[in-house]
């Protein structure tokens, strides 16, 4: 492909991107395909000689789109949202263009320095503790990970190294494998599965703690577990707390947990993957209280802050804890001036060596929306969620589950789990909207995003149809408003947004 061909193809693809967003509502929200569908559409060998762009371009609609779940579709209510915006897409084009792999400062100084700067910007925009600033005296700082799962794993592995070293100092000659059996980590029943996974990968003992009636982990429960484990001769070393759980957007009591962690000298990691974006609005910042006790904190701008996947923002109080866990220094990665310590070498802060220029996405989004623009979107989404909550409360067949705090509305039809399972199935089979179930304690739930009149109408329709099947209905429906359908307000092109915004 030469320059002219690239220009023509690029224009054609940008036009396609715009049309995709403009007309997304005309597509079926979830694909109607069976596993293996694509084998029938593509040859089983790569072409030996080059094909023409036009042939490939045609295959986007023929081969790819039939199997795409349209996460940005206004009627995709499942999971937490996934963010997207034109500024972020543009940033990714630029990132792909320079194709740097900024594993060290020298490997692409701009890649490292922009990341340091935008992560500091975010600390200030979200009123995070100053210890997370790159300029803090205690080696604090932020790094962009690919996902919340990676951030949790990095925190767990770093805490593990730190505490293993402590055990080894106290017990000279003890083998790593033996010391490892002494460590114990904590999570709650509502923690994301990625936390349990991180503990499994780290090969540490872990305990899954109970929560209170609001699905929140509390300090006294943690303290009791720690006391028990210390009495058994174990070394508690980390707790992963959650702000905005996946099942019901519950908030652990980080203030209480943080105080226990400080007294007991164990690492506190906070996973705020979804809810974190809301802290850019000062009125939601109190939900983050306790973060001042955290050794590491993480949220996903790619969920609710207009930044396209992948961008998971992580801060640590002391980056030396990470560096000590991940530092290996082969000769070919050494460069002059590297030990001046002015700028980090981010390869020591995460698991892969190479890294994309992801800070461009944050920089474009922060500049082209402004903090105010991002706040407006979060506030609008939460307002819509409360409007939907009102509809539900006004309907005697439904009840709200838990509290509507951010853009997630958990609601249920009064009655049994079974009929609610039928309702979810029916809604999804219908194909016009998509929701996923969840379970809080023993209650079957449904997770969804972006409530609208349309959602309510569709649910009503499904209820009327379901009544023929059974009289009792009781599903928890989880509805969260997502920023996605605003696709880059004020750059919005999605006609449904207008409908949504006017609700
Ligand atoms: C979405 C989510 C995760 C997983 O995020 P990834 O970036 O996909 O790893 C973890 N924790 C919570 C609370 C989440 O909402």
What would the keywords be for this entry?
five-stranded mixed β-sheet; 12 strands; single chain; binds pyridoxal-5'-phosphate; dopa decarboxylase, N-terminal domain; 13% strand; seven-stranded mixed β-sheet; disordered C terminus; alpha/beta; Aspartate Aminotransferase, domain 2; 503 residues; 15 helices
Structural commentary:
Belongs to the group II decarboxylase family. Its EC number is 4.1.1.28. The chain crosses the membrane at residues 453-479. Its cofactor is pyridoxal 5'-phosphate. It is an enzyme of class 4 (lyase). The protein has 503 residues and is an alpha/beta fold. Among the domains are: 3-68, dopa decarboxylase, N-terminal domain; 94-368, Type I PLP-dependent aspartate aminotransferase-like (Major domain) (Aspartate Aminotransferase, domain 2). It is built from 15 helices and twelve strands. Helix 7 (193-202) links the parallel strand 2 and strand 3 (205-209). Helix 4 (109-125) runs parallel beside helix 12. It is globular. The two termini are 47 Å apart. The model is unreliable at 465-503 (pLDDT under 50). Bound molecules: pyridoxal-5'-phosphate.
